[in-house]
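In the current project phase, our protein records have gained a structure token line. A sample record follows, to show the layout:
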Amino acid sequence: MRHCDIAVVGLGLMGSAALHALVRRGADVLGFDPLVVGEARGSSHGSCRIWRRFNFESAAYTALSDEAFAGWRALEAASGRTLLRPCPLLEAGPPGSAIVRQSRAAAGAAGAVGGPSTGAEVNAAFPAFRLPDDWDAVLQDSAGILLAEAALRALRQGAADRIIPRAARIEPTPAGLRILTADEEVLAGRAIVAAGPWIGTLIPELSPLLTVTRQTVGWFGSSRPNEVALGAFPIFLLEAPHGVIYGFPDFEGRGVKAGGHDHGPPASPGDWDVAPTDRELGPVRATLEAFIPAAAGPIVEREVCLYTNTVAADVRPDQGEEFIIDRLPSDPRIIVASPCSGHGAKFATAIGEILASLALDPTFQADPAFRLDRFSTFSKA
């Protein structure tokens, strides 16, 4: 039987960031994941995610965004890879849009409000758009495209000999945590579990707190490719009649990537097997046709992503849908991380450092907003 101080189970962006942080700090760590980088499963797969400094979900995320940004730039320097490509982010919606209002508030708190503020001004600045003139809008210059697959490779760089390419389960014992794969057993002192949609299977007591949803994404061809190319067209997030729709400029020659950010239907980890249908992508197409006609061409590629979302908390409802990053109260040797909720990828470098600190320093505590005691199931009150 092999031994290690810390096991990381699940090596998507969060788990790989924790592995990277632990290796950098000199920890005795092993990582476990059956998925290879580039495989079209796992919530971190695919080429890109949005990095935004200001988050409509909460102004409190700005500090975490800044920590993550510093982490991405440090990782670029260490790995020699480009991981963040600067690109403005446009958020827009009907008058009174909550997303625009909350993003403006987050940016205003940092003294960074500027750019187009109405649909008419957006249309003048970016010819691909046809927004209603009276729509509200906010443009973030401090945003960009996080190259997710490249980031995974950079985070795992230098740790290949620490990675066991197997699915693993955890069996707590008084002597340590048995990490069991199909052909090996490792005894670990502590474990970080960052297994995305599989986390409820590995840690059953978390299952009632999580919902996994099927999210569909398409790459749309353009009749006016110059208008939707990187440099001429922003990342966008529209609070539209068919739901919240996000997308990227065509920076890969594949078309405009666009998908729905509203939670899709309940899903299981096996739901990658069925490609998105035209019906599933209908709200995205309708939004593009109405508001970005230059990006409403044929669907060139299709992809499924799964969101692992946190249910509303009952002890501290104001922190209901935040990430879960905490030690498991029933066994503090186990650290759980289910942070994505559809928008956590951009924070991975910062969250990796938090997870490493939870594993290495018994006095370190995660942010109260991320702790499990906001749920009555885990509250000590």
Summary: Residues 86-144+211-310 form a domain with the D-Amino Acid Oxidase; Chain A, domain 2 fold (CATH 3.30.9.10). The longest helix spans residues 61-79. The chain has a mean pLDDT of 93.
